[in-house]
Design goal:
This protein has 678 residues and is of the alpha+beta class. 18% of the residues lie in helices and 35% in strands. The strands form 8 sheets. Strands 6, 7, 8, 9, 12, 13, 15, 16, 20 and 21 form a 10-stranded antiparallel β-sheet that branches. A hairpin with a 5-residue loop joins β15 and β16. α5 runs parallel beside α6 and α7 runs parallel beside α8.
């Protein structure tokens, strides 16, 4: 009788006895990830001995196989530690440390098919990444359709957690004004998704190495839970894979303050090393372009009397570029397809045939003789099949004429891309679905074959693939400067104080700063125009990172203010080191960056609609040197509404032991070059 009672008792408590829990910590011990198999596989994150992400579900569901999740138990673990260094051919810094502790957890269930999967965790000092690794097995051994990813990010105290976000799966892709709300009021959002806990800790959820998979958005659930919501194909399937697959990394960057998020290399470290052996042809640089004139109505993309992309106009811009040291001239509207409603002309764009008033051979020869390259442009207007059919010929043409960089565009009215399937049927796909994930990458790989770098507009979000494919040199992926010409409303003063903590955590952005004429439609608070001071426009060259930076305004506006223009001429686009030194999300931010393989440093600081004074330590400077600080800052009476131009340009001798006090006007800024003196 005792034996029978013992057996019954054991059965009743066995789920608790069998539940397993394993942990992995960051190298500095501050981040702890706990993985558990109680009822369903889950994980939690603690930071500095406080909860950051509470117990959150893991798992996958399929169209024709049982769920990987509910009832699975931990059956094996493997551990590893990595501490190495690698170099970026271009970037925010030259040398990157890759230091993490790794835990591979195997979950299994006693059944005949779909009975095992792995989750690999990498825990860095600045956050974590984890991904699913599903081996080939009965039930998951052929073509596989994923219908649900069960991953959750469970945030406690949502009523006390502040979030900065843009809506996902909307008609305008990623080009929305950021909202600032409590997490409880968040709906369906894009990543990077940044939030501040009640205890002041800052986190950002994103993903790394998005290859052959659907982009992850986040859907708000009950309470503070955020669930992975993968962007579907036209037919509702989320992801199509074959046996033995891995997912992208799900990432959580963690910091005690907002500034710490800006100094993270986690996304890059979770991507594979470069697949391009010789990167010497990838050239960080500054450029100008026949572009802003279209946005302010002086020129047109389409042909006619006001056509911007003409041989004579391009040569004029090349003269300006050569005079001031710019390496490229972007020309939009040169090829057949821009007449009429070009944003709905995807079927008729021709990527090798120019309008009669644009002679690509004469233009490129003229520019190369002056040390200036044509920056190419391919606008798909949302028809990627038409582009795919012409893509190789288009790259051949550009390579023939010495073009090294191409800006691509995927404008699509309604927010979806048009493709023609193998049966000739038109299908509509989201920009961040699996189909387009592969299509964007196909473009990058083919461009590399012809030694061309790509600057993608209307892109899929950046997930660090620039490490693997360094010719993916920049993207858009947020509201850029053009919205200040016609955005109604334009970007608010807080916009560029939010971008570094959200969109910019994913990678470089071609924001196209540098507007000098704020009054092309008149000044005022309700006018479509940059809601900034002139000094803030200069600060953007340091704050909003891109290895290709545009001086976006018209040449005459720069030549009318050469003293301020000097900062744009001086500032590099490639950096030895970058350090965020101050900031609060949506309020203000300050970055210091050292020129690549040089001694000079640059600083950019900007604020939102509130004027403020920042006192910044210069301890980032080399302690053995003295510097001439060439300062461009707001004047005493400057404000963005009706006095944006007032600027003080001054010089001071400083060292690493000094600090600078910078008064910033409403939506103002400061830009500084620290020129080494010894």
């Amino acid at each position: 009788m005792k034996k029978i009672l013992l057996v019954i008792t054991t059965c009743l408590i066995s789920p608790l006895l069998l539940a397993k829990s394993v942990q992995v910590k960051s190298p500095d011990g501050n981040i702890v990830v706990t993985v558990n198999d109680d009822k369903t596989p889950n994980y939690r994150i603690d930071f500095n001995n406080e909860g950051a992400i509470e117990a959150s579900r893991l798992g996958l569901r399929f169209q024709k196989a049982a769920e990987l999740g509910l009832g699975f138990a931990i059956t094996d673990t493997q551990r590893n530690t990595v501490d190495s260094n690698w170099q970026l051919p271009w970037g925010e810094r030259k040398n990157v440390r890759d230091h993490y502790n790794e835990l591979l957890v195997t979950f299994s269930l006693d059944r005949q098919s779909a009975n095992t999967f792995n989750v690999r965790f990498k825990v860095f000092n600045d956050g974590i990444g984890f991904r699913y690794e599903v081996p080939s097995q009965p039930g998951l051994d052929g073509n596989i359709a994923i219908t649900n990813e069960l991953t959750e990010f469970n945030v406690g105290q949502p009523e006390q957690t502040t979030a900065w976000w843009i809506p996902s799966r909307g008609w305008n892709r990623y080009e929305y004004i950021y909202q600032t709300t409590k997490l409880i009021d968040v709906d369906h959002v894009h990543t990077p998704f940044t939030f501040k806990l009640a205890n002041g800790h800052h986190l950002s959820i994103h993903e790394a190495a998005l290859v052959d998979y659907a982009g992850m958005t986040l859907q708000k659930q009950r309470g503070g839970s955020l669930k992975a919501d993968l962007t579907p194909w036209y037919d509702g399937i989320l992801v199509r894979k074959t046996a033995g697959f891995t997912t992208p990394w799900r990432t959580v960057q963690v910091s005690k303050d907002a500034v710490g998020l800006l100094n993270s290399d986690l996304i890059l470290n979770l991507n594979e090393p470069s697949k391009i052996e010789d990167t010497s042809w990838i050239e960080p640089s500054k450029y100008v372009g026949i572009w802003w004139g279209m946005h302010v109505g002086e020129n047109t993309w389409g042909s006619g009397d006001k056509h911007g992309a003409t041989t004579s106009e391009t040569k004029r811009y090349m003269d300006f570029a050569a005079k001031y040291g710019f390496k490229g001239v972007l020309v939009e509207g040169w090829n057949i397809g821009w007449d009429g409603q070009w944003y709905d002309n995807g079927d008729v764009f021709n990527f090798t045939k120019a309008y009669d008033d644009f002679n690509i051979k004469a233009i490129t020869e003229y520019g190369l003789a002056k040390g200036v390259r044509l920056v190419g442009h391919h606008e798909t207007s949302g028809n990627v099949t038409n582009y795919r059919n012409q893509m190789e010929d288009a790259f051949k043409l550009y390579q023939q004429h010495g073009v090294r960089q191409v800006k691509t565009g995927y404008v699509a009215d309604g927010g979806k891309i048009k493709r023609i399937d193998e049966n000739g049927i038109a299908r509509m796909e989201w920009h961040d679905g699996q189909f387009m994930s592969n299509e964007y990458l196909y473009n990058i790989k083919l461009a590399a074959k012809y030694q061309i770098s790509i600057n993608t507009h209307e892109p899929i979000k950046d997930t660090g693939l620039r490490r693997t494919y360094p010719n993916w040199i920049a993207r858009e992926g947020a509201r850029g400067q053009e919205y200040n010409a016609w955005g109604s409303p334009p970007n608010p003063p807080s916009h560029t104080a939010i971008l570094p903590f959200t969109r910019m955590l994913s990678g470089p952005m071609d924001f196209t700063p540098g507007t000098f004429d704020m009054a092309f439609k008149g000044l005022g608070a309700d006018t479509d125009r940059p809601q900034t001071t002139l000094a803030k426009q200069l600060a953007l060259y340091v704050v909003i990172y891109s290895p290709i930076q545009m001086a976006s305004d018209l040449p005459r506006n720069y030549e009318a203010n050469l003293p301020a223009f000097q900062f744009i001429l001086d500032v590099p686009t490639d950096w030895q080191e970058s350090k965020a030194i101050a900031g609060e999300v949506g309020k203000y931010v300050a970055f210091a960056r050292q020129e690549r393989d040089g001694d000079d440093w640059y600083l950019g600081a900007l604020t939102n609609e509130d004027a403020r004074t920042l006192t910044l330590s210069l301890d980032f400077l080399d302690k053995t040197k003295r510097y001439q600080a060439q300062i461009y800052r707001d004047g005493e009476k400057a404000n963005w509404v009706d006095n944006p131009y007032e600027m003080i340009i001054e010089q001071k001798e400083v060292s690493a032991a000094d600090s600078l006090t910078l008064p910033l006007a409403t939506s103002g800024g400061a830009a500084i070059r620290f020129k080494a003196l010894n």
